[in-house]
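Can anyone check this?
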Amino acid sequence: MAKCELFVALVLGLSLLGFTSAGDPDILTDFVAPNGTNIDGTFFTFTGMRSLINADPPTTFTVTKASAKEFPALEGQSVSYAVLEFPAGAVNPPHTHPRGSELLFLTYGTLEVGFVDTTNKLFTQTLQTGDMFIFPKGLVHFQLNTNQTDNAVAVSAFGSASAGLVSVPVTVFETNIDSGILAKSFNTTVNTIEALKAGLAPPPTKA
């Protein structure tokens, strides 16, 4: 994707901010600022997306976030923002955002997306550039770039300044839940569970 197209994608993505639904408690002041903060225009400005402009596409799935953690001025404003970059064939594995819905705007490429509701019904869609898709708050969902030769870029707005992230693979297999419990839960063997855990573990650091 041309670098100028990424810039256009980011500009278009700003429109998502007006579509998010409130998910945070109402505040009793105009805004929230940490004690001792110098309040001027700089406090309300986030420059963390500048690194995306004129940058080459990443080689792995990459998320660049503007949540309350990265941009404290969002605290209490019930909104946050992320740019998702998918290399060819990349996946954003099943995960949830427990504190906010996600409105995704596909600015370049194609994506296969889906979520599972509380009745275990799967809803999927193939998105084209310019499409939007809503992932309801707290439901497991995913995105996949099925194109094996081109990347995809999406912009997501969240109905919370801190929507949170719970990765299903990480939560299940990388949080020290006993392998015997998981084997019974998935009706498989401990060896299979151990193999899955090993596959998810990061490679050892070289000395």
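Reply from J.R.: I decoded it. The chain has four helices and ten strands.
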